[in-house]
Amino acid sequence: MSEERRLYKEISFDATPEQVWAAISSGPGMSIWFVPHEMGPEGEGEADFGGGNTQAGRVLAREEGQRIVYGDTDSPAALEFVVEGRDNGGTVLRFTQSGFFDGDDWAAEYESFDRGWNLFFHNLAQYFRYFAGLPATTLVTGSTTSLGPDAIWAKLSAALGVDPEVRLGDRVRLTPAGLPPIDGEVDYRVRGVLGVRAAEGLHRFQGFGAEGHGMVNSIHYYYGTAPDRAATTAAWQQWLLAAFPVRF
Fold first, then answer.
1. Based on the domain organization, do 119 and 143 belong to the same domain?
2. Which positions fall inside the Activator of Hsp90 ATPase homologue 1/2-like C-terminal domain (predicted)?
3. DSSP labels for 200-242?
4. In the chain, N or C terminus with fewer CB closer than 10 Å?
5. Which residues are bridge partners to 11 per DSSP?
6. CB 126 within 8 A of CB 35
7. pTM higher than the cut 0.70
8. Which domain-ending residue is among 131, 150, 166?
9. How many domains, in total, are found in the chain?
């Protein structure tokens, strides 16, 4: 890994520094906008990326209310979050990811993380605007495919029952087989990613296939409601695997 290569983002939120700190410094907070996290009393933790894919880590540095760094003591890879209040209200979050792999494909790895963080920080902004203060039940599903993003989108849109030409701001009804329909608004739409905000929370569907390590997944944030996590995850996982059987 290279300690010199870094991904940096600066995001403004209409939220207090205390709200932003809570969202980036605990397991329940990270689960609100990222993926399900479990964190222990000594700073050890595990993130669930779906489909049995988990990643362990720990808190490497912590300045209460201001700065926290996650990583692994045996690796230069790290995620740093710095929280700063704005004079005119709101909060700036400064984020740095370091420790990218060396090699010819490091640029592809960088791009993959960059677009992923764009979505996740958008999730946090949506949470503060529409669901602030509500607890989250977060579900993640995952599979793999050799298809590219355009072919994945064709299959995803058919499986969700939405127009392939759906755009940001459109009202949609998702009709995934085996799950209740979802009525909402498209709040995120870029190549390879569809995000829908509904009354109960946020639903994200993404896949870059051959352009992104073969992955395709969905993430569901239910705010203020508590669906059966195991049963609902299983239903979404079954739906995803019906469209994209795991391929190695």
1. no
2. 14-128
3. TEEEEEEE-GGGTTTEEEEEEEEES----HHHHHHHHHHHHHH
4. C
5. 93
6. no
7. yes
8. 131
9. 2
Taking only the tens of pLDDT, the chain with its 248 residues reads: 445 578 999 999 999 999 999 999 999 999 999 998 888 888 888 888 877 777 888 999 999 999 999 998 677 789 999 999 998 889 999 999 988 766 656 677 778 889 899 999 999 999 999 999 999 999 999 998 989 889 999 999 999 999 999 999 999 999 999 999 999 999 999 999 999 999 999 999 999 876 767 889 999 999 998 899 999 999 999 999 999 987 65
Alpha-carbon span 115 to 203, nearest angstrom: 17
Of 216, 211, 179, 217, the C-alpha closest to 198 is 179
Do 120 and 140 fall into the same domain?
A: no
Is residue 81 one of the residues assigned to a domain?
Answer: yes
CATH number at residue 43: 3.30.530.20
Secondary element (H or E) of residue 159: helix 149-160
149-160 helix and 229-243 helix, angle to the nearest 10 degrees: 120
Q: Which residue has the tokens 């990326």?
A: 49
Which CA distances in Å does 204 have to 46, 141, 148, 170, 217?
A: 21, 10, 18, 15, 8
Per the structure, the complete domain to which residue 50 belongs is given by 2-131
Separation between Cα atoms, residue 238 and residue 98, nearest integer Å: 35
